[in-house]
Amino acid sequence: MVEFKLEVVVLPVSDVNRAKDFLTRLGFREDVDYTGPQGFRVVHFTPPGSPASIIIGVGVTDAAPGSMRGVHLVVDDIIAAREYLISRGVEASEVFHDAGGVFHHGGTTDRVAGPHPDRQSYGSFLSFEDPDGNVFVVQEVTERRAGRISHVVYGSVAEVEQALREAALAHGQHEKELGHEDAEWPAWYAAYMAKAAGLGA
To answer: CA torsion, points 18, 23, 25, 26, in degrees to nearest 10?
Structure first.
């Protein structure tokens, strides 16, 4: 089977430097700022912990600046995310959930104030705009549905180290129960770390 991995979302902006300042203020990592002939420019940003990136620039899209709706960013704590955005000077909406209890409708249709009543994973949102009016939606995901992901992504080297330390402690207990060394420890570690990351392995 051919894998189609989402790599980049291109945001249409009118002022690249203003948009760049905004994304930097959000804490997104700048990976590339390339200028080519005839003013062509590509600026590449990656949100913290994201395998996909955002590109802004000149000549990278013919979409109207500010016309993007619903670029979704996922967090594990929607309240903390809102506080973070506000601390960075972003005008974030109040947290909301959809009246239908599933995915939100377009615009503000059927928005209900506050997080999902049961704080159901995938069920709580907030929104904000960049200086051009491109709309970002932040969605709280605390537990992935079974089969939703098939790989593990860590946000930093420190997170990998912590996951390995936790696996090592658990494996030590596992070997005590076995009563001998586990020659298949790599497979045990892999399964343990996948399960801890929510893969249900």
So the answer is: 150
- CA distances in angstroms from 190 to 50, 124, 174, 175, 186, listed in the order given: 21, 31, 14, 16, 6
Helices in the chain by DSSP H: which ranges? 16-25, 78-87, 157-178, 185-196
For 12, 62, 75, 195, the CA distances from 65, given in Å and listed in that order, are 4, 9, 26, 42
DSSP state of 145: P
Q: What is the pLDDT along the chain (201 residues), one digit of tens a residue?
A: 898 888 999 999 999 999 999 999 999 999 999 999 999 999 999 999 888 999 999 999 999 999 999 999 999 999 999 999 999 999 999 999 999 877 888 888 888 999 998 888 889 999 999 999 999 999 999 886 655 555 666 767 888 888 889 889 989 888 888 889 988 898 888 888 877 765 544
Single-letter code of the amino acid located at 177: E
The Cβ of residue 50 has, within 10 Å, a number of other Cβ atoms equal to 16
CA distance 9 to 7: 7
Q: What is the pTM of this model?
A: 0.73
